[in-house]
Amino acid sequence: MKIKVELKGLPDLRKELDRQAEKKAPVKKEILATANDIRTQAIDNCRALGVWDLGHLPGSIIVETKADGLQTEIGPTAPYGAYQEFGTRPHFPPMEALEDWARRHGFDSAWPVCRKIAEKGLKARPYLSPAFFAHECAFVDRLKKIMES
Question: Model confidence over 58-102: pLDDT tens digits?
Fold first, then answer.
């Protein structure tokens, strides 16, 4: 799952960083630090929401920096990360995917869980987007300070 968020003015920022090369390193450092803060917040959100059975989802949240250092991607590698973030419409999930979870939570089989999902879908439990929005404004302010100094 990837949520793509683009900073408005990124091309202008790149041009300005080419003009003021001494600011490139602090900007890259700020981008990486904020990405790691967002990752930490997303993991904390998983815990607060109860999206933490064995820790696979929060443990799969990674920060990947692009070659230029001015872009990062933050997100889970767990294939069900998007289902937790956005929820699902009603559908019958594959029972084998939920068998272990169901047994760990006291069910004899995954059938009742699958039936409930088939009737109601899964409720969204956003963990990543709130983490991003919690850091967005302060990040932009810090970038502005770097560029104005």
Answer: 999 999 998 888 889 999 999 999 999 999 999 999 999 899 999
In sequence order, what are the beta bridge partners of 75?
62
pLDDT of amino acid 138: 96
Boundaries of domain holding 61: 1-86+123-149
pTM attached to this predicted model = 0.87
User: And the tokens for 50?
Assistant: 């109860």
Residue-wise pLDDT for 97-111, tens only, equals 899 999 999 999 999
What is the 3-class SS of the chain, one letter each residue? Answer: CCCCCCCCCHHHHHHHHHHCHHHHHHHHHHHHHHHHHHHHHHHHHHHHHCCCCCCHHHHCEEEEECCCCCCEEEEECCCCHHHHHHCECCCCCCHHHHHHHHHHCCCCCCHHHHHHHHHHCECCCCCHHHHHHHHHHHHHHHHHHHHHC
- 139 contacts 30 by C-beta, under 8 angstroms: yes
Residues 44 and 102 in one domain: no
